[in-house]
Write a structure and sequence with these properties.
The protein is of the alpha+beta class. The chain has a single domain, classed as TT1751-like domain (TATA-Binding Protein, 2-Layer Sandwich), CATH 3.30.310.70. The protein is 44% helix and 27% strand. It has a 5-stranded antiparallel beta sheet with strand order 1-5-4-3-2. The longest helix has 18 residues.
């Protein structure tokens, strides 16, 4: 399932503020994919400016990967930002589905929930 929030802040404002806000919550940005630009360079145009950011909390990644290497398919955390009408949408994969899809112990499950709570706080900070 997808977790998503919407804001009336302009898309460019959200994108400009993302790194600082993410850092305050313990996330770093590893990379980003500007799909409109990427696809246009390959001869395919899309109407929306969709950017996906890869966010990482090193401590959490360390814990998760040591406990359950296959969780690497969900890492780093991805955050999609795009425009929908007059609103800016922020979307990510819900942690509940990740937890349900894997067999993890209670301590790691709680830790992953805390990270997702920080991701939600980030997404709702606009």
């Amino acid at each position: 399932m997808i977790y998503q929030t919407k804001t009336t802040y302009p898309l460019e404002t959200v994108k400009m503020q993302l790194e600082d806000k993410a850092k305050q919550l313990g996330f770093g940005i590893l990379g980003k994919y500007e799909f409109k630009k990427i696809l246009k360079e390959r001869g395919f145009e899309i109407n929306r400016d969709i950017t996906v950011y890869e966010l990482c909390n090193p401590l959490s990644a360390h814990s998760a990967l040591n406990a359950l290497p296959e969780i690497s398919v969900y890492l780093p955390c991805r955050l999609s930002i795009y425009h929908e009408g007059e609103t800016t949408v922020l979307a990510t994969i819900g942690i509940e589905e990740i937890i349900e899809a894997t067999h993890i112990d209670g301590e790691l499950k709680q830790h992953m929930q805390e990270i997702f709570d920080k991701m939600r706080a980030l997404m709702n900070s606009w």
